[in-house]
Amino acid sequence: MVMDVWRPRVFRPRSLSREIDEMERLLEQRSSGWPLRIMWRRIPTGEMAWAPSIEMYEREDGFILRAELPGVSSQDIDISMVGDALTINGERKPPEEVKEEEYQCSEMCYGSFSRSITMPTSVDASKVEATYQNGVLELRLPKAEQAKPSKIEIKTE
Length: 157
Fold this sequence. Notes:
The protein is extended. With about 160 residues, it is mainly beta. It has one helix spanning about 15-30, and strands at about 40, 50, 55-60, 60-70, 75-80, 85-90, 110-120, 130-135, 135-140. About 10% of the residues lie in helices and about 35% in strands. The protein has two domains: about 10-50, no CATH class; about 50-95 and about 105-145, Sandwich (Immunoglobulin-like). The chain is built from one helix and nine strands. Strands 3-4-9-8 form a four-stranded antiparallel β-sheet, with no helix packed on it.
């Protein structure tokens, strides 16, 4: 097994995300693929950023993508597709009935999020279906006709 050594670079605010991604990659690599992703990060401005967890798998006719979005209203989710890039934007709003000074502890993240995924093959954007149930967004992304495998029959004489 080849060992990668992580060497921190000079800190620059715009490279912080890249450094964290590199540390996560090395941790995952060392832990036999057990996911150690950080789903929210404290960024230099002091704000909290978060991103929903996703999973995507391929079927013969397309892809299924699921995103965990508990506490997010379907009206606060925007899905768009440009070329082979799928983007999910949205916002989880904090409860209005709780005042900031009343909190004793809060580990939940609120605010805007954005996730972009580059699809491995072309998708027919006009036939994408989205459903949202129990805090899980599910997208059915059918492959474009040119991306679907075609069976070639062998003629025998």
